[in-house]
Specification:
- This protein is of the alpha+beta class.
- Helix content is 28%, strand content 25%.
- Strands 12, 13, 14, 15, 16, 17, 20, 21 and 22 form a nine-stranded antiparallel β-sheet that branches. A four-stranded antiparallel β-sheet has the order 1-6-3-4, with no helix packed on it. The protein has a four-stranded antiparallel β-sheet with strand order 5-2-9-10, with no helix packed on it.
- The chain is elongated and about 95 Å long.
């Protein structure tokens, strides 16, 4: 009886090509046969090295949607035939549950010259690398991490038994990107931290220690690499600790005297055993390839960030692996910032590395974990992107994506695309601010016209939530967020009211730009109503920062006392950016620089290679958070702002200037503003 089978090592690798093999031997020549295939992903079929078919169909079980494959033409006159099926596991991303749906189920038979049928149903007799402790017999749903883009396995070694070359025709090469990207070589060898050998007994002990954890078997098994495996077949490994989180292509060139298994593990950090793992879920990106004897090349596309890399080689004979890596990001010019201060130069470099890995098809909140496209994260990432590079295409895609997923009531979903309806009311309000910032920074009136109806629906929804008691954020399944902070009820309400006021201010300016003076007046009147009925918003630091960033400087200084921020210590770089910009608007740039030093300098001293989701002096860096969170990359904009004395988010050039607080003569910087590129030396 056929059953679902898969290779558990691929449980975290959607779109990974998985090879499964079965040899049928008869007493007479095999002359005909067919199979019906159900696969969780596209698949390819070879018989004795001859390519038979490629199918993009996926189905849940044999039935009306299963694919029938005729094998007769591929059979020769032999009494045996080796069938190899390559399945691409299908990756599906949802909030907190990105997973790969994997598996293969085959029903069919080969027929020999005597008319005898030889079953080809899937069972445990199919060969692949399945570690002990992992269930079969059912389709699987598991964590995702990356995928092998291609592998030129020249599987022509008869002794290895794998038949056929696994190489894509040009029209079948995966294209994970819909726009130009750049690949930059990273010398991983210079960051090698450890290299060695692990005994088979130690390998087994580690694997059995946590047989049900997704990454435990590989990440606790020897992490192996670029070295030579001895003739005893004992695994060799190498560990790499890279300076920043990376996303990109890992290429392995393997020279093996005998068939070998290569395990690759990526992670944000290391576990107690020193192997790469991630935070929170305790997972790592894991890929496994089975390679034949000879020279083969394997290119892995890892779309989740990692800083720790380990490679394991297991073989009964000697094997050498050469490792190269190319980081990948959307194509952008480098941000312009140079300084004689080594500390500020390092803070800026970490910021640039954090921004780069989060700028993919859309802006990703934490590329290793959710990889989610959230409004608040995307809004800041778009600001970082446009002001430092002048390129607005990803920002434009981001704004459109949120509009396309607008709920029927007009609320903007907090996360899209997603398999959930994640509703954060203050994020819906922030989307209006994101549109305003994008249109001003990118001079994108065409997009404003396109989004006119979506903006109206969002503001109608928001206006309906307002009363004298404040903005009502209590809805079914709603989560008022504002920041990771222990809010009192009064402080949270003040922050929500301030965010509503900020959305009204943005909507008013957008209406003016669109030629809708009546709409602008309506939004401005409601804005005045909010401030008049909720005067306490300026007494709460989160609310005061949100409001200050929405106002013109003169108005902000009239309403907000900078003393409200005394003793206020937000733990996220996300909100610290808003605080620092608020201090700049209030003409306190020196205080903003001090806050930057305290937060980002302290996080760097604590060991950050990319900015963490949140940080405080008592943070350990891995306490249930992301270690690469682009919303925390505020210094990429703040440092040039403080050097140039220019606020690119100001609503008018006349109010954008302030006294620079980075007065090092060696500073060189540039920012893209609505009034053109401003760079040193600054013209008066």
């Amino acid at each position: 009886m056929s059953r679902w089978i898969w290779d558990a090592f691929h449980r975290e690798t959607p779109n990974q090509l998985l090879l499964l093999r079965r040899t049928v031997t008869a007493d007479a020549p095999l002359v005909s046969g067919s199979i019906r295939v159900a696969a969780r992903g596209s698949f390819r079929v070879w018989v004795d090295g001859r390519f038979v078919t490629h199918q993009d169909v996926q189905s849940s079980a044999p039935g009306a949607d299963a694919v029938t494959v005729d094998l007769s033409d591929a059979l020769g006159d032999g009494v045996s035939a080796t069938l190899v099926i390559g399945v691409h596991l299908l990756g599906i991303g949802t909030h907190h549950q990105p997973h790969a749906v994997g598996g293969l189920l085959v029903e069919g038979a080969l027929v020999d010259a005597t008319g005898t049928e030889h079953s080809l149903g899937t069972d445990r007799g199919w060969e692949t690398s399945v570690p002990g402790g992992w269930r079969q017999d059912a389709p699987q749903s598991v964590w995702s991490a990356g995928f092998t883009e291609w592998s030129d396995r020249t599987l022509d070694d008869a002794a290895a038994g794998w038949s056929g070359a696994v190489e894509y025709p040009d029209e079948q090469i995966p294209t994970p990107y819909d726009r130009t990207v750049v690949e930059r070589a990273v010398d991983v060898d210079r960051y090698r931290t450890e290299r060695g050998h692990i005994s088979a007994d130690e390998w087994a002990r580690r694997a059995l220690a946590a047989p049900t954890r997704a990454a435990a078997i590989v990440a606790a098994g020897p992490i192996r690499d670029a070295g030579t495996v001895g003739d005893d077949g004992a695994p060799r490994y190498v560990l790499h600790r890279l300076p920043h989180q990376l996303v990109g292509f890992l290429t392995l060139t393997v020279e093996a005297a005998a068939p070998a298994t290569v395990d690759v593990a990526f992670g944000e950090t290391v576990d107690e055993s020193g192997w790469p793992t991630a935070t929170r879920q305790g997972i790592a990106a894991v890929d496994t390839v089975v390679v034949p004897a000879g020279r083969t090349v394997h290119r892995f596309w890892n779309r989740r960030t990692f800083r720790d890399l380990a490679i394991v080689v297991r073989s009964p004979g000697s094997a050498t692996v050469h490792v190269t890596f190319a980081s990948v990001t959307a194509d952008r010019p480098d941000p312009e910032f140079r300084t004689g201060s080594e500390r500020y130069a390092r803070i800026h470099a970490i910021s640039a590395a954090t921004v780069a890995v989060g700028r993919q098809d859309l802006y990703e909140d934490c590329p290793l974990r959710e990889g989610g496209h959230y409004v608040a994260d995307a809004r800041l990432q778009a600001v970082f992107d446009i002001t430092t590079t002048g390129v607005a295409d990803t920002s434009r895609r981001s704004v459109r994506q949120f509009a396309a997923a607008q709920d029927p009531d007009g609320m903007i979903a907090a996360l899209t695309p997603s398999g959930t309806r994640h509703r954060i009311p203050d994020f819906a309000l922030q989307w209006v601010c994101q549109v305003d910032e994008h249109v001003r920074l990118a001079d994108d009136d065409a997009l404003l016209a396109e989004l006119h109806d979506a903006l109206d629906r969002t503001m109608s929804w928001a206006d309906g939530r307002w009363s004298a008691a404040g903005f009502d954020a209590d809805g079914p399944g709603w989560w008022p967020f504002i920041d990771w902070f222990p809010f009192t009820a009064q402080a949270l309400q003040a922050a929500l009211d301030a965010q509503y006021a900020a959305a009204l201010r943005a909507a008013s300016d957008l209406a003016v730009r669109a030629g809708d003076e009546a709409g602008s007046s309506r939004y401005r009147a409601r804005f005045d109503e909010v401030l008049a009925s909720r005067p306490d918003v300026v007494r709460h630091p989160h609310a005061a920062a949100i409001l200050t960033c929405a106002l013109d400087p003169d108005e902000a200084r009239r309403l907000v006392d900078p003393a409200v921020f005394d003793g206020f210590r937000p733990t996220t770089g996300y909100f610290l950016f808003h605080l620092c910009r608020a201090l700049i608007v209030l003409r306190e740039p020196t205080t903003a620089r001090r806050r930057l030093d305290e937060h980002w300098g302290g996080m760097m001293d604590a060991g950050a290679g990319t900015w963490w989701e949140r940080w405080s002096p008592d943070s350990t860096g891995d306490d249930d958070q992301s270690l690469c969170h682009p919303w925390s990359a505020g210094p990429i904009v703040l440092l040039p702002m403080l050097a140039l004395g220019i606020d690119p988010l100001a609503r008018a050039e006349a109010t954008a200037r302030f006294a620079p607080s980075l007065d090092d003569a060696r500073v060189s910087a540039a920012l893209h503003t609505p009034w053109g590129v401003v760079r040193t030396p600054v013209e008066p």
